[in-house]
Design brief:
Elements lengths: L4 E7 L6 H9 L8 E7 L6 H11 L4 E6 L5 H11 L4 E4 L4 E3 L3 H10 L5 E9 L5 H9 L3 H4 L11 E2 L7 E3 L1 H6 L10 H11 L4 E12 L4 H21 L6 H22 L3 H27 L4 H27 L10
Parallel strand pairs: 1-2, 1-4, 2-3, 6-9
Antiparallel strand pairs: 4-8, 5-9, 6-8, 7-9
Length: 338
């Protein structure tokens, strides 16, 4: 017999994307009778719950349960869903995602083979809409210049990694390391995987495990997302200093360099040349990446769109990280795991 699987999904106001997710789950190659879906909804104010109810009525052979998440934060949603779940294996998905048909089957196979304590795969990032900017953001969100060594966005070979998105793990792991940390409003997956690794577990990335992820559609939405990522990454590093990676250090150093260089230029104008030189080198690097992407994808708009999106990601992430540091000087919140 196959292990029973609980697919846990945090969501809030996902009316536009929840049905494609549920359809993708329904079309899984894994035995439908061995799966259940637990959706922790943050009290959605749009038609999300109506969409879920309509889908459940039309697909009675897939068990779908909705639980309330009044805290409206992702780790609380995951914990609420886990408490409701009955499966031997937990597979985390997202309201913006669509797993490939063999996603659950491959996750279970790798777990059963003992390849890792938490397993996951690749994000295939797609645009939120058909505009040239949204399509540029989707390319930037998987580009090494934008995400560095985050292998789950562009890996081609299996590997042991620091983290995976939407991990799958056996329920017994929770007895060893605990649930998701509700003191973090984001980075909860990474923090969970830190504890997996600290317990001696392994995080397994298999590029054959694939899910579609819908990127943000505008620079403003992208900046908001990455500012939040940067802010909460500081909380993570404050708690686990050894988790800092080079790709995470560069954006705050770049933003701090611009701010510091600007202040120095006011006092000593000669520093303006250094500041201008640094910004010029950065612009040239982005331009080269944009031109390369435009040629590779045969989409001329990427020559402009990719540099805009990558700069947006870098500056927002770096600013969020620095703001998190500044706020951290005046509060102990998040310094220790509660």
């Amino acid at each position: 017999m196959h292990p029973t699987v609980s697919i846990i999904v945090p969501c809030y106001n996902e009316q536009a994307t929840i049905r494609p997710l549920l359809t993708a789950i329904y079309e899984q190659t894994y035995a439908r009778a061995e799966m259940e879906v637990i959706i922790a909804d943050g009290m959605s104010t749009d038609g999300t719950r109506a969409e879920i109810a309509a889908f459940a009525d039309a697909h009675a052979d897939l068990e779908i349960t909705v639980v309330d998440n009044p805290k409206r934060i992702i780790p609380a949603a995951l914990n609420q869903a886990i408490k409701e779940a009955r499966g031997e294996i937990l597979v985390r998905l997202d309201g913006h995602s669509m797993p490939y048909p063999d996603y659950v089957e491959r996750c279970v196979a790798d777990l059963e083979a003992g390849l890792g304590e938490n397993v996951g795969g690749i994000w295939e990032i797609r645009p939120a809409c058909a505009t040239w900017l949204a399509r540029s953001i989707a390319v930037a969100a998987a580009h090494p210049l934008g995400v560095g060594d985050a292998l789950y966005r562009h890996a081609t070979k299996p590997a042991y990694v620091d983290t995976v998105p939407f991990g799958a793990f056996k329920r017994e792991l929770l007895a060893l390391i605990g649930f998701f940390d509700e003191n973090l409003l984001t980075n909860e997956d990474y923090e969970f995987n830190v504890r997996v690794r600290m317990s001696g577990g392994r995080i397994w990335l298999n590029p054959d495990i694939r899910s579609v992820y819908i990127a943000r559609g505008t620079l403003r939405a992208l900046a908001s997302q990455y500012f939040r990522y940067g802010f909460w990454k500081w909380r993570m590093i404050r708690r686990y200093p050894g988790t800092l990676r080079w790709r995470q250090a560069l954006p705050p150093l770049f933003v701090a360099g611009i701010l510091g260089g600007t202040l120095l230029t006011i006092a000593w104008p000669i520093f303006g040349y250094l500041l201008a030189g640094g910004i010029l080198l950065y612009t040239l690097a982005l331009t080269a990446a944009g031109l390369q992407a435009a040629g590779q994808h045969k989409r001329p708009f990427l020559a402009v769109g990719l540099p805009l999106a990558v700069a947006d990601m870098h500056i927002a992430w770096g600013a969020g990280f620095l703001w998190g540091m500044i706020k951290g000087l005046f509060t102990t919140e998040g310094a220790k795991r509660q």
